[in-house]
Amino acid sequence: MDIAIIGGGGSGLVTAHLLKDAHAVRVFEAAPQLGGHVRTLGRNVAAPGLPPGVVTENGVLGFHRQAYPAWHALVAELGVELLDYRLHTGLFLDDGRCWVTPSALLTARHGRVRAAVESLRSLRVGKGVLARLAPGLLFPPARLKGRSVDELMGQGALWERWFRAGFVQVFSTPWEAVGQLPAELALAYFADTAAPEWSGVRGGVFRYLERIVAGLDADRLHVATPVRAVERVAEGGVRVHLAEGSAATFDKVVFATSPGQILRLLADPSDAERARLAPWTDGPFTTTAHRDDTLYRGARVQVASPSDFFACEGGARFAYNTSLTAAYGVEPGSAPIAFAHGLDHCIAADRVLERHTHQTPRYTPAAWATRDAIQASNGARDTLYAGAWLGCGLHEGCVTSALAVSRLLGGRTLRGVA
Ligand SMILES: Cc1cc2nc3c(=O)[nH]c(=O)nc-3n(C[C@H](O)[C@H](O)[C@H](O)COP(=O)(O)OP(=O)(O)OC[C@H]3O[C@@H](n4cnc5c(N)ncnc54)[C@H](O)[C@@H]3O)c2cc1C
C-alpha cells in the first residue's frame, strides 16, 4: 500500500520505520528538519554558538528505564549507544533558599554539607517527598479518573507548587495551564518514575532518529513540506493536499502531528471524528538552550541538575532549568550547557544558543477521555493516528502508538514487546 505519514517527529519516523518493509511510506514534515520535539543542537538543528564537537538538547532529553520498555527495545534493535544519568532535582526559591535531592548533593563539587543543611531547612516540601515516593498514598488511583490537577491539588503549599513545576517540565505545559492536566496523566507519571534511572542518547537524542532515517528512502522524506488538507476519497483512499498546491493519492494516511492539528487538516470530518478530536488543542511552549551559568548565583548552594525549578515573581509561578553538563560530558570549568523554560529574563542574550517555540498538546480531562475511542477508530476511513499524546504523553507513547498502527497495517513489531 501507499501510505502518507504526516509529521516527521518521533512518532512519524518510528511509524515509517515499522512499516517500510511492508509498504511504500512517504513522510511529510512541515519544519525544515526532521525530529519534531527532538532538537539536538549540533545534529538536526544548527547552533553556531556551540563549541566544536559539543551537542546539546533543546527538547526531548531523557527516557526512563523501567517506564519506557518499547523505546528501549527499539533503540537496542537500532544499536544506539545510551548513557545513564540520574534524575536529580532541585527547588530554588527567590529568597536564596533551596532544596535539592540527596542524590544531587553527591554531584556537588563543593559545599555538600552546607547544601544538606539548607535542604533540611527547606523541608517544608516534606509532604511532596512522600507524594513522590509513594504517590498512591496521597492520590489513590480511583480518585484520579476524569479529574484535573486543580480538582485534586491546591497551589498554596510549597510541595504543591513543586509538583506543578514538575508538570510544567514533564508535559511541556505552561504554568497557567498545568491545573487543567488530567490527574491520571500527571500524577501517574510520578508513580511510574520514582526510581531515578534514566537513559540519554550518547551524541544526542537525534542520533536514534538518524539511524531510522538512514534506513528510509531519502526521496520519500519531504521536509519543509506542510500538508494543507486531507480529503477521504469516496471509493477508498485519501488525497493529501500540500501547502505548495500539489496533491497525491494514498491508500492510507497516518496523522503523526500534534493532536490539535488533525481537525484543522481533515477536509471532511464526520460527526464522530469531530466529537473525538474537538477537545484537543495545541499551544506554544518556548524553551531556550543556553550557556549562562549565572542562574544559580542567588542560591545559597549551587548544584545544577536536569530538573531544577526556580520560583519567579515571588513564587507566583515556577520555571525550570535542565542542566546537561554532566550528561553531555562538558569539560569541568567550561560554561555549562542547559535549556530552560520561563527564565528568559535571567539569561544573557549573548549566552543563548537557540530559542524555540514548540507546539505542545494541551492535555485536559475532556481530551484525555477521547483517547480510547480514537485508538479504536484507527483505520476507519483509511485514517490512522500515531503520537506521544496517545500514550503517556512522552516518547514511549511515540513507539507504542506507532506499534499499534503497524499491527493494524501488517507492519513489523519489536522483539520482546507484546
Ligand atoms: C521541550 C520538550 C521537552 C521534552 N522532553 C521529553 C523527554 O525528555 N522525554 C520524553 O519522553 N518526552 C519529552 N517530550 C515530549 C515529546 O513531546 C514527546 O516525547 C515526543 O517527542 C512527541 O513526538 P511526536 O512525534 O508525537 O510529536 P512531535 O514531535 O510534535 O512531531 C509532530 C510533527 O508534525 C509536524 N507537523 C505538524 N503539522 C504538520 C503539517 N500540517 N504538515 C506536516 N507536518 C506537520 C510538526 O512540525 C512536528 O515535526 C518533550 C517535549 C518538549 C516540547
Task: Give your account of this protein's structure.
There is one protein chain. This protein is 29% helix and 22% strand. The protein has 418 residues and is of the alpha/beta class. It folds into 2 domains: 156 residues, FAD/NAD(P)-binding domain (3-Layer(bba) Sandwich); 188 residues, Polyamine Oxidase, Chain A, domain 2. The strands form 5 sheets. The protein has a 7-stranded mixed β-sheet with strand order 8-7-16-17-18-15-19. Strands 10-2-1-14-20 form a 5-stranded parallel β-sheet, covered by helices on one side. Helix 1 packs parallel to helix 16, helix 2 packs across helix 16 and helix 5 crosses helix 9. Bound molecules: flavin-adenine dinucleotide (FAD). Flavin-adenine dinucleotide binds next to helix 1, strand 15, strand 19 and helix 16.
Q: What's the SSE blueprint?
A:
Elements: E1 2-6, H1 10-19, E2 24-28, E3 40-41, E4 56-57, E5 63-64, H2 69-78, E6 82-86, E7 89-92, E8 98-100, H3 102-105, H4 112-121, H5 126-133, H6 135-138, H7 141-144, H8 149-152, H9 158-170, H10 183-192, E9 197-201, H11 206-214, E10 221-222, E11 227-232, E12 238-242, E13 247-250, E14 252-255, H12 262-265, H13 271-277, E15 282-290, E16 307-312, E17 317-323, E18 338-341, E19 352-361, H14 365-368, H15 371-376, E20 383-385, H16 395-408
Parallel strand pairs: 1-2, 1-14, 2-10, 7-16, 14-20
Antiparallel strand pairs: 3-4, 5-9, 6-9, 7-8, 11-12, 12-13, 15-18, 15-19, 16-17, 17-18
Number of helices: 16
Mean pLDDT, as a whole number? 89
CATH architecture of the largest domain: Alpha-Beta Complex
Number of E-type strands? 20
Helix content: 25-40%
Largest sheet: 7 strands, mixed
Oligomer: single chain
The shape is globular
Derived from helix and strand composition plus strand pairing, the structural class reads: alpha/beta
* Ligands (ions, cofactors included): flavin-adenine dinucleotide
What is the strand arrangement across the widest sheet?
A: 8-7-16-17-18-15-19
- CATH top level label of the largest domain: Alpha Beta
Question: How far do the termini sit from each other?
Answer: 25 Å
CATH third-tier fold name of the largest domain = Polyamine Oxidase, Chain A, domain 2
Uncertain residue ranges: none
Number of domains: 2
